Amino acid sequence: MDLLLSAANSALLTAHDLRRDVEVGLFLLGPPDPPRFIRLVGYQLRSWQPDVRSNAALVRKALEHASRVEHETSPGIFASKASFEEALDRLGPSFVYLKEGGKDVRDLLVPADATFVLSDNQDLAPEEERAVLRRDALVVGLGPTSLHADQAISIVHNELDRRHV
After folding, report:
1. Are residues 61 and 116 in the same domain?
2. Which long-range contacts (CB under 8 A, 24 or more apart) does 47-50 make?
3. Which domain CATH number covers 144?
4. Same-domain pairing of 46 and 13
5. Structural domain of residue 25, as residue ranges?
């Protein structure tokens, strides 16, 4: 959970606000009742804080929702039971798969509305990777050093910020 919350904070937080144009999808496979999909919609969030503990409480509340129908559990936080493919379908329309060994992000044109797909400290399972690649995902690397998910997100934001100023 800590890895996911750190990644969400990297995706959403700036020094003095939230990135209102960002949507984060958290796909959880751990017990007790997987799979769970939580979407954090930047422009709708009201309670997201730099404090991981406060955000953990919001995610715990979202995990109480066990329906396949997506439900808003707090402003800007949506929860459902969904497969990985269903989660991808709710995001999109274009995908960038962050993967070690991918083409250098600095050499590529990245769609402005791209959904970036990355994993935590474990690679995507083969069937998950196939699901991403079936959506014509651009496979992108961030450099020669292995990074944590939250670090990768910060680098991607920096790269996109420089391009779209």
Report:
1. no
2. 47/74, 47/75, 48/12, 48/13, 48/18, 48/76, 50/9, 50/13
3. 3.40.1280.10
4. yes
5. 1-84
DSSP H stretches of helix in the chain: 2-12, 52-63, 84-90, 126-133, 149-163
Q: Say yes or no: 8 and 44 in one domain.
A: yes
- pLDDT of the chain, 165 residues: tens digit per residue: 889 999 999 999 999 999 999 999 999 998 888 999 999 999 999 999 999 999 999 999 999 998 999 999 999 999 999 999 999 999 988 999 999 999 999 998 888 789 999 998 888 999 999 999 999 999 999 999 999 999 999 999 999 988 875
Beta strands 94-104 and 71-74 are: unpaired
The answer to whether residues 59 and 33 belong to one domain is yes
